[in-house]
């Protein structure tokens, strides 16, 4: 069994062939800081190598799945060159999160127990089956803070809802309810809030106890198609996201967000 005790931003527990991974910063609404970036890239590799894990359940602590990036920290990394905790900012970290998750052959079921925004939404949509709370909302809101939807959103949303709808939602940062997300094919199931984790657990348990190699290799086959699209889009969108960190509009968007006012964009 792999030792998961070193994880601080994630809680990982393995029981009876099922690993439960929890984004564990409830006091920060599971915002993904630099340390969580690192752990989210590594955990999929550890789970892949753990012979006791046959399926994974992913969820968030508290009443939010993840609000995505640390907006307050963005002001502390001018130009996107420094991570919110002062560590060197390395854009390849987001790439490893997405690619390592897509490379994991074991099935991953996501219990969207609350709002999923930005990178939080992208991670949820990279999993294999999503069960969403009827009280939750999901969106890629990069544009709301003056950034390109670069860490997977520009690749995944068109695959799931089609290019026209994806462009509208990504360019406006549209918040979708569970009912809307299910109708558009963004998520698999929408249930009452108290049924999210039990429903997702039942599905994950069925996968953990199913025909192992048939399940894993079916996932790998479908993910070849997903990875082809990610390969086509990801590096360009990520580079453009890094470029938007240097814009005045990004700085204005973050400042306005923190000051709880409407931003005034200048196109610079």
UniProtKB/TrEMBL annotation:
Source superkingdom: Bacteria
Mind telling me which InterPro entries this protein's record contains? ClpP/crotonase-like_dom_sf, Enoyl-CoA_hydra/iso, Enoyl-CoA_hydra_C
Name the PANTHER family for this protein.
ENOYL-COA HYDRATASE, ENOYL-COA HYDRATASE ECHA15 (ENOYL HYDRASE) (UNSATURATED ACYL-COA HYDRATASE) (CROTONASE)-RELATED
**Family note:** Belongs to the enoyl-CoA hydratase/isomerase family.
Which protein, by its recorded name, is this? Enoyl-CoA hydratase/isomerase family protein
Source organism of this protein record: Pseudonocardia eucalypti
């Amino acid at each position: 069994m792999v030792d998961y005790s070193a994880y601080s931003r994630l809680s990982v527990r393995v029981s009876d062939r099922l690993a439960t991974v929890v984004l564990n910063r409830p006091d920060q609404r599971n915002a993904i800081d630099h340390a969580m970036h690192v752990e989210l890239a590594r955990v999929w590799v550890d789970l892949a190598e753990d012979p006791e894990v046959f399926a994974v359940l992913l969820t968030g602590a508290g009443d939010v799945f993840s609000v995505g990036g640390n907006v307050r920290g963005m002001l502390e990394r001018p130009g996107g060159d420094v991570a919110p905790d002062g560590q060197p900012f390395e854009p390849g970290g987001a790439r490893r999160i997405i690619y390592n998750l897509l490379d994991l052959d074991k099935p991953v079921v996501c219990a969207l127990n609350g709002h999923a925004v930005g990178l939080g939404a992208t991670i949820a949509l990279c999993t294999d089956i999503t069960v969403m709370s009827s009280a939750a909302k999901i969106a890629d809101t990069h544009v709301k803070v003056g950034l390109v939807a670069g860490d997977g959103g520009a690749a995944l949303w068109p695959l799931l809802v089609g290019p026209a709808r994806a462009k509208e939602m990504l360019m406006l940062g549209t918040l979708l309810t569970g009912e809307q997300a299910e109708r558009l094919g963004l998520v698999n199931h929408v249930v009452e809030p108290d049924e999210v984790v039990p429903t997702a657990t039942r599905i994950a348990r069925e996968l953990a106890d199913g025909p192992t190699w048939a399940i894993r290799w079916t996932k790998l086959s479908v993910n070849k198609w997903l990875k082809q699209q990610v390969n086509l889009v990801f590096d360009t969108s990520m580079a453009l996201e890094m470029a938007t960190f240097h814009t005045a509009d990004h700085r204005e968007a973050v400042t306005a967000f923190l000051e709880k006012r409407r931003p005034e964009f200048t196109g610079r």
